Amino acid sequence: MKKISALIFTLLSFIIAQRAFATHLRAGEITAERISNTSLTYRVTLTTYTDEINGRSANEAQEDVDFFPGFINNGVVSYKVARREKVLISPSTVRNTYVTEVTFPGPGLYRVSCGIPNRNEATINLPQPSDAITFFVQTTLVINPDFGLNSTPVLLNIPVDSAATGVRYIHNPGAFDIDGDSLSYRLTIPMEDRMEANGIGAPIDGYRDPSTVGNSPIRNEAGTGPATFRIDPRTGDLIWDAPQREGQYNVAFVVEEWRKAPDGNFLRIGEIVRDMQIIVVDTDNNRPELEVPGDLCIEAGEPFEFDVIGTDEDVDQTLTLSSSGGVYNIDPAGNFQQFVADEAATFSAQSPRPSPIRGTFSWLTNCDHVREQAYDVLFKVEDAPGRFITQLVDIQTVKINVNPPRPRGLQGEENEEGVQLSWLPYADCVRGGKIYIYRKDGCSGLNPGECQQGIPEDWRYELIGEVGLTDTTFLDTDAEQGQIYSYRLVSDIEVSNFNTMLSAPSTEFCIGSELPKRVPVITKVSVTETDEATGQIQVEWSTPIGLDTSEFAGPYQYVISRTTGLGGDNFEEVYRTTTTFDGSADTLFTDTNLNTSGQVYKYKLAFYYEGDQKMGEAPAASSVRTTGTPDDQEIHLFWEANTPWSNENQTHLIYREDKDNPGVFNVIAEVEVTGPNTFDFIDDGTDNYLADGDQSITLENNVQYCYKVETVGIYANEASQFGLLNNFSQEYCIAPADRTPPCALVMNLDNIGCEAANQEDFCGVNAFTNTLSWSNSTANCRTDIIRYNIYFSRYEDGSFEQIGFVAGDKTSYQHVKNATEGFAGCYYVTAVSILEVESEPSNIICADNCDKISFPNVFSPNNDGVNDTFEPMNCPAFIKNIDYEIYNRQGIRIAQGGGQSLSWDGVADNGNAVSPGTYYYSINVEFNRLQETGEVKNYKGYIELIR
């Protein structure tokens, strides 16, 4: 009896020990770093996050794990890797790292994986008990010599986070790719280990989307629609809007890595699966909010700085502001790691304090920081509501593009051989590259956009040469003497083994345009009447500069030519006049019957002596063009012009029409224009210019307001004798508009339903049609919907792509599919307002196929055209692959085959027709289902062959 009791005690102790060992995994991922330029050796790291409260003893025992590298080496498929580090990162979570080096046998696709027993308990969106489910993560590497060296991204933000019921939750992994590859993100299902399958995992059967957990109706934070759980494929923001039920959740997503090939296409070269845990609590604490700039572009070498502000409705709480990203050269553990070349960025935040809290991001970039993909910099504000109240955070990611520095200091002079150009030495770039030289006739006065790369095609410059990055001169031997030319430089530097990246165009250098001798110059191109058909522009010019009438005799003529567009060059003569230089008003022309509402007009002036002898031309100048974009009770105005004088470093005036006095415009603002990207102004209704009285108003949405801009410019150098040049744009009218997105929709899906359908139902032309219909999720939704966008993902864990749209007066869409794919796939729909603002996705609904297939028990291969082959009956559908084996009555296999269809003609594999009789079949069918890897079904039976 004592022996039996001891045995029972021993067994119980073993079971308890095993259970303790199996209940601690919260989150984790696998990363890989290429550490050799000559061999395929990688440093592979598994990082896990474990439950310190309920799984401490289990984690203590997890001193090593089994790694599966994705290949077999001398019969070995896995090997043990010891734990390198164990760090307590919070009172409830430990971070563990297991590091090894793997040398892969050759190019190929490898799935490095690891499975560990077991997850921690009480994860409510997993089947229960969740602590009986293994933890499994994998990373895919594509090793290809043509792709060059590659390391996976690193994930700089920990995957254990807190959320609050009813409050929008956001997480970002802080992925950084040291190679500068493009990253994308998609959701997947957490996986469990198939212990018997040698490093192969499977999605957890019974996993629930977190947004479906709770008591119906499950709403988003704003209460305008159903809760959603999604990941932004571009930024990696994981957004749950909003949790309803308290508890612990596990979710997973994939970080995909893409490399740009020489042909411009992107190739997927790897992916990481991150499995993470979210702990949702019920709290009255308000989530803090961050204010950050939008995505930014900077030019390498320029100082760069911006402020970040955190606020909280709970003004008595202390806020902490922090930032992370590869630009800081700090790894997830807070240690130095060289992600970017020196110098790294810095973030200086105020010490923890009540709302508001401020921080400043600074980065002095250089040529080594240039890359095609943006740097993701994550900012986080966290509150401190008290010891027993869960902290809440807001996270925002700013994408920063670092472009190559443009060549600077371009100058030139004319000589007997042509035009000799020179410029300053290029920035210190260790990468190779070129400098391209461009030229066009005349001066452009154009300014590149903030993120411009290369010369815009519509600027109509011609590439005339190229030199190395270290060169500082170029001789244009094709330039004609006395002509006006505009020159620009563009650098093209290497950013990878395959690709280069263009800088923005250099500042323009015009030769022959300083002040043409003996030729007048244009001094005004100002819109005086705005209309689609009867618009007017006033053009003025100077008399010829330095003309000696004794040397160049009359008669003298001015000839005005006109073209449309800022960069237009198809000029046509519109005015010609004779002058005697007697002081009469012959240097002014009013161009009439123009579409000044919709067009920009550009003018050039030629001067003739002795009647038909051309002395030369003045550089062309355009009218000023004002445009704008609406916002909620605000108008954002922009203006531009293409002139030989500079409109920069001047004060421009903004006029707004008096609503009570149509046609009367008042100055409402003085705008200090300092550079190419400062020709803009936001009108919120406030009159900032009080010299003519306070004309402040409240801008109302959907009410039109009219504006015009007065620019101020000056000719450089000696041309400044003409003083300041004032020109008006056309009158531009626009209405503010509410840019809040439409409500998220509630969608339904209807089809014949393969489970309920008979096999014969699949024979129709439109048998496989998914019909989507939708409605607003709440009563108070926007009504200015211009279209609905329909998105589709073939697989449940795949990426969504837009497959169509319908007009805003439609509320349904039919997706007709083929018999192979059938009904399978997932959908969501969005609404788009008249301002092109798109709603959040609707609920996601998926349709699936089934395993409907049947086989005859008799066929007659006698070539009479009837029942000549053994094949599935009644329009078989959804077949991805079908393999068959035919056996005779003695159990000997006589025929086999496979593919997407089955059609056996009664001929054995040896080429002989088999004799009449009874035969047996074994058929394996893999169906196209919602999961990419479908279940294989086996069908066995007999067939009677008759001849």
Automatic annotation (TrEMBL):
Keyword set, alphabetical order: Signal
The keyword Cell division is annotated on this UniProt entry: no
Transmembrane spans: none
InterPro entries, per the entry: Ig-like_fold, T9SS_type_B
Keyword flag NAD: no
Top-level taxon of the source organism: Bacteria
Stretch forming the signal peptide: 1-22
NCBIfam families attached to this UniProt entry: Bac_Flav_CTERM
Protein name stated in the entry: Fibronectin type-III domain-containing protein
Species whose genome carries this gene: Jiulongibacter sediminis
Taxonomic lineage from the root: Bacteria, Pseudomonadati, Bacteroidota, Cytophagia, Cytophagales
